[in-house]
Amino acid sequence: MSSSLRGRRILVVDDEPAIREALRARLEEEGAEVETGREAGGARARIAQGDYDLLLLEQRPPHAPGLELLEQLRQAGSTCAVVMMSAGSSAADTVRAMRSGAADCLLKPFALEEMVLVAERAVQAARPGRLLALPQGGLVLDDLIKDLLDQALEQCAGNKSRAAQLLGIHRDQVRYWVKKHGLTRWIRTRAKPSSREERGRE
């Protein structure tokens, strides 16, 4: 079964190298792309420059409290899911983190499998509609349209009206794309009239 963390970009911020590396190794086993850091200040700059799906953030990294970073990210409009990690946060801190937009909180020490489950829930809740993991080299939009159109027509047994409804577009657009992308198996050829029909028209 494919993990929902496969292809996700995750940033782990913790001041303990052993914890950073243990989390990195386990998340990479799930197919995630993982980067690590020890300071919230560096995490803020990285998130501003890159599109991360998840931030695993120690509650009180050196030089900048994790809660303050979480609040700053939300104020800046960041949609990155955030899971707080703490060895001794108070109930008030946990409530503040959740109210500030944290997806969840992990109390140290925690099992790696628990962390994976929490991480999966966090990314799914943050971007429920994001099902397509883009390849590193990008993709060609025309190829994607062609594949989607072919799949829709296959599912609808070649019925262009139903395929159009499935794709949320007009039937004429389906016809146009079929011709444009050379999907010849979905182009219906009209039968030529018989000689008797031709004589009847004369």
Distance between the termini: 66 Å
Shape: elongated
CATH class of the largest domain: Alpha Beta
The fraction of residues in strands falls at 5-15%
Number of domains: 2
Count of alpha/pi helices: 9
Q: Low-confidence runs (pLDDT<50, min 5 residues)?
A: 128-133
Structure class? alpha/beta
Order of helices and strands: EHEHEHEHEHHHHH
Summarize the structure.
The chain is of the alpha/beta class and 202 residues long. Helix content is 48%, strand content 12%. A 5-stranded parallel β-sheet has the order 2-1-3-4-5, with helices on both faces.
How does this structure look, described?
Helices cover 48% and strands 12% of the residues. The chain is α/β, with parallel strands linked by helices and 202 residues long. The protein folds into 2 domains: 118 residues, Response regulator (Rossmann fold, 3-Layer(aba) Sandwich), CATH 3.40.50; 48 residues. The termini are far apart.
Which secondary structure elements does this structure contain, and how are they paired or packed?
Blueprint: E1 9-13, H1 17-29, E2 33-37, H2 40-49, E3 54-58, H3 66-75, E4 81-86, H4 91-99, E5 104-107, H5 112-126, H6 141-155, H7 160-167, H8 171-180, H9 195-201
Helix pairs in contact: 6-7, 7-8
